[in-house]
Design brief:
The structure holds 2 protein chains of 2 kinds. By secondary structure, chain A is α/β, with parallel strands linked by helices. Chain A has a single domain, classed as Cobalamin-binding domain (Rossmann fold), CATH 3.40.50. Chain A is built from 5 helices and 5 strands. Helices cover 46% and strands 13% of the residues of chain B. Chain B has 12 helices and 10 strands. Chain B has a 7-stranded parallel beta sheet, sandwiched between helices. The two termini of chain B are 40 Å apart. The chains are: A alpha/beta, B alpha/beta. At the A-B interface, helix 1, strand 2 and helix 2 of A face helix 2, strand 3 and strand 4 of B. Strand 2 of chain A pairs parallel with strand 3 of chain B, so a sheet runs across the interface. The complex binds guanosine-5'-triphosphate and magnesium ion. Guanosine-5'-triphosphate (GTP) binds next to helix 4 of chain B. The site of magnesium ion has 4 residues of chain B, from helix 4.
């Protein structure tokens, strides 16, 4: 009776007040059989990592439109390390300038999805990342 | 697993979160965890928050937790949302309303998907409550799926059940249908800033009176009261007058009082001896369920699938009736004679 349901945190850091994209992705992941913890707007890195810890998610998705990703992402990774959670992968969706993508990946972001990425691609990528990396 | 359990006992949050996942995903893990932790449980006040969708349960949980934290008690929160029956996935959004609680290490919030259970909780919610209890959370708030009816499971899980309604929406009628008054220890009319809340409060009070004159007394191991004066609310009397409170969860109005009454209910249960009665009722139900599951598992283990399949076909072809088929299954497991 071992169940394997992927738990995903979808968080919206930054100050812009618009989460349509994040909600579309959240619903698509639910429809793909995942349990999606949706935390809403204006999440600080502290809130995001705390929620990821309590919810024991397999992966964290950040939806960023505000351009704050270069400031927020390092802080999120720092907090993950402090909580022994460096094994939890992080992906980003939203509006990210091309030149930032390699820098984000260098920081540890597993995947960056630009606007208009099909939800199938996101779903497949999450499944690959989580099921490929799970050791338990 | 043992290392994890030790860490849960000392309240390590990562360990708590990971053990919850194991309990949710794996019955064998749940069994070992509960066996190990059970003697540490029984200390928490378990409070259920139920009611129709969108009435403000999560917002209320946020407010209640903030008030309780002033007294330094640690608060565990379990928020249950439905799983899709088609894909098994779930969108767990209750945390959106609980953002005020982040950053407080005395609070632990966990979202749970119902995973096919229909009674408003997940099958493992009771075990997650035990885990949080053992980890030292003194008050545990359980928000059910907002289905509007049939969330009766919460009554056998919580010591204090509050049913949250909102003005309008024809809730009054739905409430009677759902039989939800029988499970309420407290009725909350939230969104009291909206027009019509006085009417909803009145309607609920009237319904409580009707319920009393009909006199259902012992439902789901719970007592619903006869009439008594306001001042007796928190004393040792046998009876609990179900109060109707109004709140505005979004700005905190009425929540101090709601928490006060919730704690008064706990005192009432303890002084009247009903605390233990409820514990017993809950254990009776839990053991009944575990026995069922266990019997089923034993029969599956002892009677080969091919034999079971033969019997099923025989019933379908009307060569044997279902009762005799079960007699046959029992005979094959040596439970009888
Ligand atoms: N006007 C008003 N709105 C409120 C009040 N309490 C909550 N709300 C709003 O009602 C909506 C639903 O609140 P939730 O707390 O998510 O309700 P819920 O019962 O947990 O919803 P489900 O979990 O989906 O069943 C949100 O937009 C809240 O901001 C209140 O006291 N007054
Ligand atoms: Mg809710």
């Amino acid at each position: 009776m071992e169940e394997r349901i992927i738990r995903v945190l979808i968080a919206k850091p930054g100050l812009d007040g618009h989460d349509r994209g994040a909600k579309v992705v959240a619903r698509a992941l639910r429809d793909a059989g995942m349990e999606v913890i949706y935390t809403g707007l204006r999440q600080t890195p502290e809130m995001i990592v705390e929620a990821a810890l309590q919810e024991d998610v397999n992966i964290i998705g950040l939806s960023v439109l505000s351009g704050a990703h270069m400031a927020l992402t390092p802080r999120i990774f720092e907090l993950l390390r402090l909580n022994d959670m460096e094994d939890v992968p992080v992906f980003i969706g939203g509006i990210i300038p091309n030149e930032d993508v390699p820098i984000l990946k260098e920081m540890g972001v597993v995947e960056v999805f630009g606007p208009g990425t099909s939800t199938e691609i996101i779903i497949d990528s999450i499944k690959d990342t989580v099921l490929g990396e799970r050791t338990d | 697993m043992n290392a994890l359990i030790e860490q849960v006992r000392i309240g390590r949050r990562r360990a708590i979160a990971q053990l919850i996942t194991q309990i949710e995903n794996n019955d064998t893990a749940a069994r070992s965890a509960i066996k190990a932790l059970y003697s540490d449980t029984g200390k928490a006040h378990i409070i259920g928050i139920t009611g129709p969708p969108g009435t403000g349960k999560s917002t209320l949980v946020n407010g209640i937790a903030k008030v309780i934290r002033k007294s330094d008690l640690r608060v565990g929160i379990i928020a249950v949302d439905p799983s899709s029956p088609f894909t098994g996935g779930a969108l767990l959004g209750d945390r959106v309303r609980m953002r005020d609680l982040s950053g407080d290490v005395g609070i632990f919030i966990r979202s749970m998907a119902s995973r096919g259970s229909l009674g408003g909780l997940a099958r493992m919610t009771g075990n997650v409550v035990k885990l949080l209890d053992a980890a030292g959370y003194e008050v545990i708030l359980v928000e059910t799926v907002g289905a509007g009816q049939a969330e009766v499971d919460i009554a056998s899980t919580a010591h204090t059940t509050m049913v949250v309604e909102a003005p309008g929406m024809g809730d009054e009628i739905q409430t009677i249908k759902a039989g939800i008054l029988e499970i309420a220890d407290l009725l909350v009319v939230n969104k009291a800033d909206r027009p019509g809340s006085d009417r909803t409060v009145k309607a609920l009070k009237a319904m409580l009176q009707m319920g009393q004159s009909r006199g259902y007394v012992d439902h789901h191991g719970k007592k619903i009261s006869v009439k008594m004066s306001e001042k007796d609310r928190s004393d040792s009397s046998e009876h609990w007058q179900v109060p109707v409170l109004d709140t505005v969860a979004t700005d905190g109005k009425g929540i101090e009082e709601l928490v006060e009454v919730t704690f008064a209910h706990k005192t009432h249960l303890q002084k009247s001896g009903q605390w233990f009665q409820r514990e017993k009722a809950r254990c009776r139900q839990e053991i009944g369920q575990l026995l069922q599951t266990r019997y089923l598992a034993e029969i599956r283990a002892r009677v080969p699938t091919t034999e079971r399949e033969k019997l099923i076909v025989a019933v379908a072809e009307r060569r044997i009736d279902p009762y005799s088929a079960v007699d046959e299954l029992f005979a094959q497991t040596n439970y009888r004679d």
